[in-house]
Every structure is written in C-alpha cells, then in structure tokens.
Amino acid sequence: MKFHNILIKWYLQNKRDLPWRKTTDPYPIWLSEIMLQQTRVAQGMPYFLAFTTTFPTVFDLAKAEEEQVLKLWQGLGYYSRARNLHKTAQTIAFDRNGIFPDNYTELLKLKGIGEYTAAAIASFSYNECVPVVDGNVFRVLSRYFDVETDIAQASAKKEFAALAFELMPKENPALFNQAIMEFGALQCVPKNPNCTECVFATSCAALQKKKVHLLPVKLKKTKVRNRYFNYIVAVDEMEKTFIRKRTEKGIWHNLYEFPLLETEKPEDFETLAQKINQTFFPKNEIESLILYNEESIVHKLSHQHLYIKFWKASLKGEIKNGIDLDTAKTFPFPIVIHNFIEDKL
User: Fold this and answer.
1) The HhH-GPD domain covers which part of the protein (predicted)?
2) Can you tell me the distance from the alpha carbon of 54 to that of 31, in angstroms, rounded to the nearest whole number?
C-alpha cells in the first residue's frame, strides 16, 4: 500500500475537528496559518475564534486600527505576525477588492506570507499541487525515510519539498498536506512517539534502525541573549500612571509599556533610583521606590531571555500626560506586562 494511502486513511480516522478545515475560503485559512506559526493549536484556537468573530471578513480586519489588532493578538507573541496580518488584509481589501491570489507564486508576494503559508493557502483553498513543509513534515519524512540532512540548512526545505511532492497524490494535494501535518502533530511527535501503535511501524526506516530519537537532525544552535529590564510603574498624587508606545524596531514594536530602564546586569536600588529620576521624571520628586518582585520574572523569547523587574515609583505632584489605570488597561501590552497589571495593579 502506498505511503499516501496509509497516511490519508490514518488522517480520516484521527483528524481533529478544526474550524479552518471546514472551508476553502482563503481568509480563515490564512488567519489560522499565520496564528499557528510557532503556536500550538490549543493556544491559537481562542485567538482564531476571537479574530473571526471581531473581524468576520478581510474588509473588517483591514478597516480596524492597528492597536485593536494588537490588543486582540496580545499573548500570542511574535507581534510582527499581527502587524503583517493587518497590512496584508489592507492590501487584499483595498488593492484587490477582497480577493486573495489563487496561486502559490502570487501569494508569496504578500507581506508576512512565506513559502509554508503560501503553500498551505494554495493547496487548502485552491487545491494547487504544492507541498507544505513545516516542522511536522520535516520530522515525519526524515524519520520514515531516514533522511539525515540538517534541517537548519537553507537547502533542506527544497530537499524535503521535493520528497513530499513525489509522495503527494496529484489529484488531492490538500488532503495529503493536511494529513502529513496532522500525523506529525498527533502521532510522530518530537519526543517519545508511540511507535508501536503507528501505522508505519513496519515500514519506518528510523524505527527499524532505532534512530527515531535522533531525527530530524538540527545542528544549528540558536544563540540566546540575556537582557535585564526594569519597568518603572509611576504613580502620582492623582493615582495616575504613565505608559509609552514602543516605537523602536525589535521585540514588541508598537506595543505599550511602562518607562523602561534596560541595564547590562541586575542593578542595585541606589543606582536605579538615581537613573529613574534623571531619565523619566526630572520634574517630579520620587517619594518612594519599591520593588514589586524581588525575583526577576524570566520571559523567554526565541533568541533572548528577558529578566524583568517592576518598580513602583510614588511621585509628588502630577505626571505630565498621565492616565488612570483603567484607561491604561485598554492598550495593547506585551503579555508579561499585561499579566503583571492584572495580578498586581
């Protein structure tokens, strides 16, 4: 029995009931694919439902303010995805009259849509014969065929795409793509897969050679940078605070935050107190400065670990451009600040 026949039979018996699988409309398919990049289905599902409820069409998303989009995205991470999503919605709605490109090559030209997402939309919406290659596909194919190519290499995607294309039934590429991704997500999982219960137990090369735990090969290590963030939660005599928009490029672009002092290492109280007054509130005397959290909150991102402390600075007088806390809560924050506000303020 051919690989694709076994795989598709397994899929039809085991697939999850997911809303974006019940349509060929490219809008919800595109939304789901962008949201599920580096995000588990269980985490992404509430966001997908919130977006499709708030923005039922690409026109609704296009007409929204960026801050509304970022607020709804809050907690999903990789916020450039949300900004690109919004810009691409505007392109589709205003430049293309709401009509998505109907092929892989044209989809690739849209902001925020890479090879994987373009292939997913092209196959799921238009049944174009183009393979999707994500982490699940790398894992399934490398194990089944014992492919030792380092998937961190730029050339790996072409190699695996060619293999997937060879296996794909040309009359139903969408079903094959869904099946192989789902198989990697549910059965051929990264750690401790249940190989004895696998439909490919008798034909998987990695299982026969006892190499399942060694594949796929990924040699390139991500270098992680440590950063030390001190957020200053100022409170004046009117019980108002101050937040700013993070306009510089990099993490959390266009999200809001409290005044931030980034230091090379954890700093002591005296050093920070002096810097806070000079940097942020030269016209307000600081009556007291206390730490909300003695231990740093460690927030891990793909290439950096943030060690975060929140400081309460009680100020004399009134903060220029201060806002009350209820108003502040309506702005989009990085999830670590949002959680702090909900928990402590």
Assistant:
1) 35-186
2) 13
Last residue of one domain, picked from the residues 214, 241, 270? 214
Q: How many Å apart are CA 223 and CA 205, to the nearest integer?
A: 32
Q: Are 340 and 256 in contact (CB under 8 A)?
A: no
Amino acid at 185: A
| CA-based nearest residue to 151, from 211, 214, 218 | 218
Give the Cα separation of 214 and 56 in Å (integer).
Answer: 44
3-state secondary structure of 281: coil
Contacts of residues 12-17 at CB distance under 8 Å and 24 or more positions apart, as own/partner, are 14/182, 14/186, 14/187, 15/178, 15/179, 15/182, 16/41, 16/182, 16/186
Residues 271 and 309 in one domain: yes
Residue 204 lies in a domain: yes
CB atoms within 10 A of CB 194: 10
Are residues 337 and 317 in contact, defined by beta-carbon separation less than 8 angstroms?
A: no
* Spatial separation of the C-alpha atoms in residues 312 and 304, rounded to whole Å: 25
Please tell me the distance from the alpha carbon of residue 314 to that of residue 285, in angstroms, as a whole number: 9
Residue pair 335/298 in contact by the 8 Å Cβ criterion:
no
Model pTM score:
0.91
Instruction: Report the alpha-carbon distance of residue 72 to residue 255 in Å, rounded.
Output: 12
User: Tell me: the pLDDT tens digits for 276-307?
Assistant: 878 888 888 888 999 999 899 999 998 999 99
Q: DSSP code of 331?
A: S
Cα–Cα distance measured from residue 168 to residue 181, given in angstroms and rounded to the nearest whole number: 13
Q: Tens digits of per-residue pLDDT, 167-222?
A: 999 999 999 999 999 999 999 999 999 999 999 999 999 999 999 999 999 997 77
- What is the set of active-site residues? 33
Dihedral, 106, 109, 112, 116 alpha carbons, nearest 10: 50
Same domain, 36 and 104: yes
Q: From the CB of residue 48, how many other CB atoms can be counted at a distance below 10 Å? A: 19
Do 249 and 189 lie in one domain? The reply is: no
